[in-house]
């Protein structure tokens, strides 16, 4: 019997990255929406899945075996890439993998992590820190324009995990970008948005 995948989440960047990876990898899954505003992520039923009370969480249910739980969006993305290795979300050879890792971690450390820090500072009313992080994020997304100057995707000729990370963080900050100065990024953004799997994933938690 095939594994059954259940993705618990809400409409957040981390959850959307996980959903895009599963869709692009062609992994059939069930979406279970978690109502964050109602505090569902802090209730016993969900805490039994992820004691941290955070989304996303991926349950891999196998007949006759204990289910596997992944509670980090990046782990879910790499799981999807390995599960569907023939699709090459993670790269077909060492050089391709290395370039994907390089770009993936660039977006993770230089845009996604600061975005999360800025969100938390905003919640504490620390506006100076929030502005600093937003400025840094925009600068790094503008740098990414050079990554797609000669290639259709962030790590080369093929769509990869790097594009998933880049796309979801760009969606979150697209209104802060001066797109007239970013023609390559603009074309890449439209190219990724037009992918059927991406479109399905981006509406998964609506």
Task: Please provide a written account of the structure.
- The protein is built from eight helices and four strands; from the N terminus they run βαβαββαααααα.
- It is of the alpha+beta class and 206 residues long.
- It has a four-stranded mixed β-sheet with strand order 2-1-3-4.
- Strand 1, helix 1 and strand 2 form a beta-alpha-beta unit.
- Helix 4 runs antiparallel to helix 5 (127-143).
- The longest helix is centred in the middle third of the chain and has 30 residues, at 94-123.
List keywords for this structure.
206 residues; alpha+beta; 4-stranded mixed beta sheet; 8 helices; 9% strand; globular
Helix content: 40-55%
Average predicted local confidence, pLDDT = 92
Number of helices: 8
Alpha-carbon Rg, integer? 17 Å
Largest sheet: 4 strands, mixed
List low-pLDDT spans.
Answer: none
Strand order of the largest sheet: 2-1-3-4
Overall geometric form: globular
DSSP summary, beta strand count: 4
Could you say which structural class the secondary elements and strand pairing correspond to?
A: alpha+beta
User: How far apart, in Å, are the first and last alpha carbons?
Assistant: 30 Å
């Amino acid at each position: 019997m095939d594994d059954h995948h259940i993705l618990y989440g809400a409409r957040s960047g981390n959850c959307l990255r996980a959903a895009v990876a599963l869709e692009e990898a062609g992994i059939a899954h069930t979406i279970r929406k978690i109502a964050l505003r109602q505090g569902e992520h802090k209730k016993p039923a969900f805490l039994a899945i992820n004691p941290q009370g955070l989304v996303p969480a991926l349950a891999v249910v196998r007949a006759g075996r204990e289910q596997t739980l992944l509670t980090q969006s990046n782990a879910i993305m790499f799981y999807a890439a390995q599960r569907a290795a023939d699709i090459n979300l993670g790269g077909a050879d060492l050089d391709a993998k290395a370039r994907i890792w390089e770009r993936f971690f660039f977006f993770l450390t230089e845009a996604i992590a600061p975005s999360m820090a800025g969100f938390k500072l905003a919640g504490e009313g620390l506006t100076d820190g929030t502005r600093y992080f937003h400025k840094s994020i925009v600068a790094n997304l503008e740098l990414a324009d050079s990554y797609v100057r000669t290639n259709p995707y962030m790590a080369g000729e093929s769509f990869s995990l790097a594009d998933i990370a880049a796309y979801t963080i760009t969606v979150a900050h697209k209104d802060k970008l001066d797109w007239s100065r970013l023609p390559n990024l603009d074309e890449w953004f439209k190219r990724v948005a037009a992918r059927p799997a991406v479109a399905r994933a981006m509406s998964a938690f609506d």
